[in-house]
Design a protein that fits this description.
By secondary structure, this protein is an all-alpha fold. Helices cover about 70% and strands about 0% of the residues. The longest helix is centred in the last third of the chain and has 21 residues, at about 310-330. It is globular. The model has no long low-confidence stretch (mean pLDDT about 90).
């Protein structure tokens, strides 16, 4: 009982958002090292409070916490139990928040989490949890969307991740929207590899009532579950809406990164650019150059470099591009200024209708 009261008091000290100094003092005093063994305490209530304290301490001691969890026998399995519906939601949110900080490069950890059946539980929380729980669950889910393993991506897609992501894009917190856009980018990066045109013989064409539908960008037969295609998943318009509504935050940059996966550096580039034009994405991307965050500006410049390789786009948007890019080319930090200047120089050398 005394231990529990001490833990609850400590939680009250470190949980306020503005308690930065208190958390730093606790971290400097190696308080996290004292708490970590309590994750295996026999009393469930004490463990629950410890998880919440450690979640609050991620900013100061995240690496230390994650290392202990990954290297302690059966602790991942214990953490998966916190995702069950019977656990208090604030404890679930804390546990999932800690999982979201685990290094994504640790593939063994990803496989262990899958063995613990964590994936469907995370998706459940993304669909039905509180805003904070959805946000943290989305962070933990990102490791399963990486293009490093298409089979793991397929498991996520088969569980209905696209529907969950559409919901977050429309009504999630700012961080949840960023993470949803990152997940879409990760899945879309595998589409070109999966969208292989099917070669059909003349006889087979006679048997078919109609030829297979070919994706307007990827050139093969695409589907939401088969190739993770953003077009077939009907999320392109959602990403464009997100871009338009969030240009003052890093959400817009995350949206641009997802859209940029539709512009492959091959013969399909022009098809992707025309899709973005038809979806009304190019003007809001240009607007980010003037009104976006520093991070969003860099991402906007990167995608514009691709867009303006297409002659028609240089002719249509060249004048507007100069209005946004010229100030950046002269006043932004070195890397961004150089990229903006290169785009303007390319358009000028190709005879675009812009004023200099």
């Amino acid at each position: 009982m005394i231990q529990k009261q001490v833990m609850l008091t400590l939680l009250g000290f470190v949980s306020p958002r503005d308690a930065h100094e208190t958390r730093k003092i606790f971290s400097d005093a190696h308080g996290v090292m004292i708490l970590l063994p309590f994750l295996k305490h026999g009393d469930v209530e004490i463990r629950n409070v410890v998880v919440q304290i450690l979640y609050c301490m991620l900013g100061e001691s995240g690496d230390e916490i994650c290392h202990f969890i990954m290297t302690t026998t059966k602790l991942i399995g214990l953490f998966s139990m916190y995702l069950d519906e019977g656990v208090q939601e604030e404890v679930q949110a804390a546990a999932v928040g800690i999982l979201s900080r685990m290094p994504v490069a640790e593939t063994n950890l990803t496989l262990e989490l899958m063995e613990q059946n964590v994936l469907p539980m995370l998706l459940h929380h993304i669909r039905q949890g509180s805003p904070n729980l959805k946000e943290n669950a989305m962070g933990a889910l990102l490791r399963f969307t990486l293009p490093l393993d298409i089979q793991i991506q397929k498991k996520v897609v088969d569980l209905g991740i696209f529907q969950a992501l559409r919901g977050l894009i429309k009504s999630g917190t700012t961080k949840a929207k960023i993470r949803a856009a990152i997940a879409l980018r990760n899945l879309s990066e595998s589409t070109m590899q999966l969208s292989i045109p099917r070669k059909l013989s003349g006889c087979f064409f006679c048997i078919l009532k109609k030829p297979p539908t070919v994706c307007r960008v990827h050139g093969g037969e695409c589907g939401e579950r088969t190739t993770f295609c953003l077009i077939e998943a009907n999320v392109v318009s959602d990403l464009v809406s997100l871009l338009k509504a969030s240009r003052g935050s890093d959400v817009a940059g995350a949206s641009v990164e997802a859209l940029s996966t539709l512009l492959p550096e091959n013969e399909n580039l022009e098809k992707g650019v025309l899709l973005l034009r038809d979806e009304g994405a190019i003007q809001p991307i240009l607007g980010l150059i003037s009104h976006g965050t520093d991070s969003s500006k860099e991402k906007a410049v990167n995608i514009l470099r691709k867009i303006f390789k297409v002659k028609a786009m240089r002719e249509i948007y060249g004048g507007e591009a100069q209005i946004h890019l010229a100030p950046v080319a002269t006043h932004a930090h070195e890397t961004l200024a150089k990229q903006a200047a290169e785009i303007l120089a390319t358009m000028r050398s190709k005879g675009s209708s812009i004023l200099f």
